[in-house]
Amino acid sequence: MRKKQTTPSPGGVALDDLRLLLAIADSKSLGGAAKRLGVDHSSAFRRLAALEDRLGTRLFDRGRGGYAPTPAGEIAIASAGRIGEELDALDRQLLGQDLRLSGRIRVTTTDTLLHILAPLLAEFRQCEPGIVVEVAAANAIFDLSRRDADMALRPAATVPEHLVARRLTTVAIARYAAPDYLARQTARGLDHDDFAAHDWVAPDESLSHAGSARWIASNVPRERIVHRGDSLLALLQAAKAGIGMAALPCYLADCEPALRRVGATLDEAAVPLWLITHPDLRPVRRIRALGEFLSERLRAQEALFAGRESVFAEH
Q: What sequence ranges are listed for the domain HTH lysR-type (predicted)?
């Protein structure tokens, strides 16, 4: 029996369709694409189904590994990518002509920096009430070229060359553990500096770029890693629960009375803290104003990021 041919429905491909295709291709899931586009899962599902119906072909195969493009989908994604790059460039160039001290700024940062960033944004709000700041807290690196965000505040070893980055300070990393965990190890006669003998909580592969993850990979045997997490906040909570030792940013863990810093900071794990934007957005007055404000305030907190303000360190 011959398979019935699907007849394409009338209508073309809209710009929103192109954005949906690219989001699914990048995230390999409909849920991830919906989150990225700011729509609910059911809306994204209906939009994809309607697009496939109009084109008369399936664009993605759904499997255990997520959404994989079909041959037709690969053609559509390649075209969407080319068109999307031109539209994003036009969008940035037009935005670069906006000289108002008002409007929206989307900032992406890590969840570990929110307790530092939020008070600064409250202060900035008092200075510039016409500017609305939207914060996207995620460990994933947002694509500034696609305008996923206008500005990024992130610890990172390197920054893509096509972006404009200000190095604000250095983020120190140290070892931390709960007092009861340390007491148990001391009772066993275990030295705190014997990395290979301790139980460790460590980042999973999604955080392999982090300075702490690189240090653990070089200094801790895999068999000593007893717990993993996909965020530093998850690792902090695991360390507080006494599961094991963790390598964490000092600005985050020094604020936790339930943790003790063990030994000196790990120089080879330290990473710069960057404020990043796209070069096309440098003329935008509101983005420049926020960038200058955050640069000044965050550089003033160098001691916190360098781990020199700890009151819980082990001696």
A: 13-70
Q: Give me the residue spans of the domains in the chain.
A: 15-95, 103-171+271-305, 173-269
Q: Are 193 and 141 in contact (CB under 8 A)?
A: no
Q: What does the DSSP assignment read for 159-220?
A: --TTSEEEEEEEE-EEEEE-HHHHHHHHHTT--TT-GGGS-EEEE-GGGTTSHHHHHHHHHS
CATH of domain 173-269: 3.40.190.10
Architecture of domain 15-95 in this structure: Orthogonal Bundle (1.10)
Q: Does 173-269 match 15-95 at the fold level?
A: no
| Tens-digit pLDDT profile for residues 103-131 | 899 999 999 999 999 999 999 999 999 99
CATH of domain 103-171+271-305: 3.40.190.10
pLDDT digits (tens, 9 = 90+) for 131-174: 999 998 876 655 555 557 889 999 988 888 888 899 999 999 99
